[in-house]
Write a structure and sequence with these properties.
By secondary structure, the chain is α/β, with parallel strands linked by helices. It is about 40% helix and about 20% strand. Helix 9 links the parallel strand 7 and strand 8. The longest helix is centred in the first third of the chain and has 17 residues. About 45% of the residues are buried.
């Protein structure tokens, strides 16, 4: 089977539309992690993603009759651009079904390439089901984004290029995993010619569908997936990609969104290019793997798979990058409400830069402050600083890993509200689409009083809300039943110390 795929990759028709992307050294990152890091720059393709390789290789093999009838695909964006470009070059028509929450930059790009867009459903799975239905009704050829041998072979040409571009040994190649087509194609080629090279996949912690499949012994469907890294937000990997990955992938690393944001910054500092979250996934996984294994002196490749990012999402990425790189710590500290106490606190912090400071008068005795501190030595320095603050007599809470603090409280610090009875605080997530915020407010506010509310657009596909809701004890069971029926993921933050200190 490997030999069949090797032949498919060697004969893949991708260079009618794709370029051979460079394998660039990441000098700053290499120095920091004490390994030689090379970036495979698929973000430099004409559609800013590797996806045109597999899409074109699939379409170029259609019969004239199939091409004349037209093709259809479902996509969150990058595959859609590849299919639209391939259809335009080959003289066919392309219909693309995309979720309603697809970033504007991706819908506009597909339209500019001549694709007809149909927005359908809240998730990729909704769009996928609708595309299959239309394909059957209108006799269109469905172009799968990953679970197709010709698509896999097209993506495998990236492995062929990496092997040709670096003459020496490559110790490990890190590849993002969504549905599995990219890593399947690259790994098949690399393992055929360089079996000692480790193939390591990288998944976000909130969409680790390949990891779930390997643990279960076969593809499984995740209940939900996070869409911050929307290019890899796949609930179920392919049957064929799973079969290949189980044979040729050596390991999978799981990273969180803060680590992805830090990797976006790493890539920018070395290349001055801004990749999308999925495009930075390989670098994030590489950094985690190197730290966990204490690896040094190795030759490592990371595939930058795409750069289709909405500009307004950069606000959230920049905000979280320092946390992901462990360059910032967030603390809640209680200091005496008296003259000179802030200066004394700053002396305890020392010469470290304060990145954020929020204060609100609490009472005549104490003040609660929310402070961000720049770190130079990561978690080791954070522990040293925590110890110094406690030894100086300050009650302190480390909020660096507290999602409520990072998403909401840092923008809300303003004091408590006396006399609010039965207040309970919940953090919600809902699809970011027109009318969604109003629907959320209506669903909650029609039954219970909202006493606190914070919403901030983070430039992602999901809106995030922190809400205080007055719910008496005897209505709590009915309230939780209502939340479950509403269907938005939620977290009870009523006992979160950040809420109690700053907002409760």
């Amino acid at each position: 089977m490997k030999s069949d795929y090797l032949h498919k990759i060697l004969t893949a028709r991708v260079y009618d539309v794709a370029i051979e992307t460079p394998l660039d050294p990441a000098r700053r990152l290499s120095k920091r992690i004490d390994n030689t890091v090379l970036l495979k720059r698929e973000d430099l393709q004409s559609v800013f993603s590797f996806k045109l390789r597999g899409a074109y290789n699939r379409l170029v093999r259609l019969t004239p009759d199939e091409l004349a009838r037209g093709v259809i695909c479902s996509s969150a964006g990058n595959h859609a651009q590849g299919v639209a470009l391939a259809a335009r070059e080959l003289g066919g028509r392309a219909i693309v079904v995309m979720p309603e929450s697809t970033p504007t930059i991706k819908t506009t790009a597909v339209e500019s390439l001549g694709g007809k867009i149909i927005l359908h459903g809240a998730t990729y799975d909704d769009a996928y089901a609708h595309a299959l239905d239309l394909a059957e009704k209108e006799q269109l050829t469905f172009i799968h984004p990953f679970d197709d041998p010709d698509v896999i072979a097209g993506q495998g040409t990236i492995g062929m290029e990496i092997h040709r571009q670096h003459s020496g040994t490559i110790d490990a190649i890190f590849v993002p995993i969504g549905g599995g087509g990219l890593i399947a194609g690259i790994a098949l080629y690399i393992k055929s010619l360089s079996p000692q090279t480790k193939m390591i996949g990288v998944e976000p912690e909130d969409s680790a569908s390949m990891t779930a499949a390997i643990e279960a012994g076969g593809p499984v469907t995740l209940d939900t997936v996070g869409t911050f890294a929307d290019g890899v937000a796949v609930r179920r990997v392919g049957d064929e990609t799973f079969r290949i990955c189980r044979e040729v992938v050596d390991d999978i690393v799981i990273v969180d969104n803060d680590e992805i944001c830090a990797a976006v910054q790493d890539i920018f500092e070395d290349t001055r290019a801004i990749v999308e979250p999925a495009g930075a996934l390989a670098v994030a996984g590489m950094k985690r793997f190197v730290t966990a294994s204490s690896m040094t002196g190795k030759i490592l490749v990371a595939v930058n798979c795409g750069a289709n990012v909405n500009f307004d999402r950069l606000r959230h990425i920049a905000e979280r990058a320092a946390l992901g790189e462990q360059r910032e710590a967030l603390f809640a500290v209680e200091i005496p409400e008296q003259q000179g106490s802030f200066m004394a606190f700053c002396k305890t912090i020392g010469k470290r830069n304060i990145t954020e400071f929020n204060y609100r008068y609490q009472d005549t005795d104490t003040a609660h402050i929310f402070v961000g501190v720049e770190l130079c030595r990561g978690n080791d320095e954070r522990e040293v600083l925590l110890s110094a603050l406690r030894q100086a007599g300050y009650p302190v809470i480390d909020m660096t890993d507290n999602e409520m603090a990072k998403l909401h409280a840092r923008h809300m610090v303003g004091g408590t509200a006396p006399g609010i009875a039965d207040e309970r605080v919940y953090r919600f997530r809902f699809p970011e689409r027109p009318g969604a915020l109003l629907a959320f407010l209506t669903a909650i506010g029609n039954f219970w009083n909202i006493s606190l509310f914070h919403y901030r657009n983070h430039g992602s596909d999901y809106g995030r809300v922190l809400a205080g809701i007055q719910v008496p004890d005897d209505e709590l069971v009915r309230f939780h039943r209502h939340l479950d029926e509403l269907g938005y993921p939620y977290t009870d933050e009523s006992k979160n110390p950040v809420y109690r200190m700053f907002l409760g």
